[in-house]
Amino acid sequence: MKENDQPLKPEALADDPWQQLKGFTRARIALGRVGSSLPTREVLDFGMSHAMARDAVHLALDMDQLAAGIAELGYDTVQVHSCAPDRATYLLRPDLGRRLSEADSEKLLAMRSASPIDLLIVVGDGLSSLAVERHVHGLLAEIKAIFPPDWSTGPVVLVRQARVAIADTIGELLNARMVAMLIGERPGLSSPDSLGVYLTYDPRTGRNDADRNCISNVRPEGLMYAAAARKLLWLARESMRLKLSGVALKDESDAVEIEVQAVPRLPGESA
Amino acid sequence: MKYSHSVGQVHYTFTDLKDVLAKATPARSGDYLAGVAAETYAERMAARMCLADIPLRQFLQEAVVPYEEDEVTRLIMDTHDATAFAEISHLTVGGFRDWLLSDIADSVTLKRVAAGITPEMAAAVSKLMRNQDLILVARKCHVTTAFRNTIGLPGRLSVRLQPNHPTDDARGIAASMLDGLLYGSGDAVIGINPATDSIPALMDLYYLVDEVINQYGIPTQSCVLTHVTNQIQVMEKGAPVDLVFQSIAGTEKANQSFGINLGILQEAHDAAQALKRGTVGNNVMYFETGQGSALSANANFGVDQQTVEARAYAVARRFSPLLSNTVVGFIGPEYLYDGKQIIRAGLEDHFCGKLLGLPLGCDVCYTNHAEADQDDMDTLMTLLGAAGLTFIMGIPGADDIMLNYQTTSFHDALYLRKVLGLKPAPEFEQWLMKMNIMDAQGLVQPVRTGHHMLQNMPKNLLSAA
Fold first, then answer.
1. Which end of chain B has fewer surrounding CB within 10 Å, N or C?
2. Which of the listed CATH numbers 3.30.40.10, 3.40.50.300, 3.30.70.380, 3.20.20.70 matches domain B145-434?
3. How many domains, chain A?
4. Which of B63, B118, B70, B119 is nearest to B261 (CA)?
5. Closest CA in chain B for residue A14
6. Given CB atoms, is B418 within the 8 Å cutoff of chain A?
């Protein structure tokens, strides 16, 4: 029997002697225990994370403030609503969140221009208003900075109670060649504010997941705004060239660079 | 057969067997979404009363998904064991409930008739059962399987150690693995959900877990939960594959949406068995299922989500898996809205699986957009523990940072074992005691900084420690 493997005398709160492993992962390791249960500090910490994720789902997005911020970047904005009247309905009926309200369908149709929009940007609250509130402005600024000068873009369409597919309907109504949907993703306990970006070529009602390309986990702790913007524009250029999006459009952009950025660094380790 | 029931002046009619089943189902959001649920409380009870009088034999005559169109239906009908069924063939669904709860139906009897029970019969009777009925009968069903240890013995509760990492970082995975092992988890399987599906990266994961298992002589098995076709590829390349994993569903069309069919599963099963890596048994498959998956693939054929889920267990049963679990709260509130619905579904799935002879575990879990929290998970895991659940998940702090949902933790497993007097798989239990991680009473021991598991990780993976 190895001497170091002999157990210690139990105490009320047993800290785990592998704290340093926390540097390798953001998983909740080495939490310690009281008996076999979680220490109070960890129960409370978990409870706060869950509370933030719940708030991200249920707190309504301040669309006016968002619109004002986007206008400062030089974009026109237009606000619309899905067929899901409120959050409770939205959560139970994903089909309603994919459908644009009738009044807003007419509103957008009236705005339709004869010449197509190259890349239309739509913003939806999705399952995390927090993600939209925190990251849409920053991401749009980066997109604008590298947007192809010969491409047209329409107004940024802001959608309440939105699911991803509603952007396809909006793109179709506004005569868009491509649509990029920026939407709050299903919040995780450690990531209540992940923004997702979905690109569809030739958007039409009835498109499915296989027709879209997805860039996920856009936030400073995940994929940075600038990298996400580069990835989106890379995909959009390829999409325009190949006249398609989705599974047939393989993402061969700067994947390596992005993966490296997503790995949490150890203290003192160089990037 | 005509399906109807009258209560006083009100006459309820149902179009077919699947309509009765759907309307008899306890309320849940996914059946409303599918448009198959009862419209009133009274209609739901009338459907249950109608269901109670339907003979079990009728389930062999009337398929809920057409035989000609669906290989899962064909599997269910063609492999039905008439001899095993003989003992219960005279019963109605209501009579079947009474029989199951009676002392005639002991563990030996239940095992004998399992092959005569179809998933639809199991689902049907569950709809007439209260939660305590689901617990009591499931507890009588003993399903034992083996690979490098023995899973499912009475009085045992195993844990799948799930050391996921959002970028498959080897050190991140190793750190979570070590955390779990030192908390006594990992006897069901050490199973990683990979972020990547690149074959070389998957190979690295197999070698990583295999090396940890070998280094410490752990009597357990590994699994990388990638698509089954990837697992066939890595086996061809010589990777050390213990268990083959696949998510499965209850209709051919839903399985198609997962990119699988019975033939592919058979091929993977045979390839894994040929490797002969098990020491005390050779159950090589690991399946996951969950209510709502068929509807989300638009492949439910008007059948309620719980009945389709039970049909997935017929697929699983075909391949004698080491492990199979329902991922009960993962899919979201449009299928199971809140804690009450998740708890009910977890108990139903466990009951149906065990009755059909599967080593059923449960990923007791929820997402942040469901009306559920840790208290609901505590309730469900405790009920399932009382029901004789085969295994639960073990994740650091219940927080899966790769899949973004909350499941059960290493601490939860210790709680359940302590409160219900349950032990790990016997071979793993011996190993935990030998390593001074657990004492003879089953209590986890405080570990010294110098414990050799903290010092000697393979390839100096965690040398910073």
1. N
2. 3.20.20.70
3. 2
4. B70
5. B446
6. yes
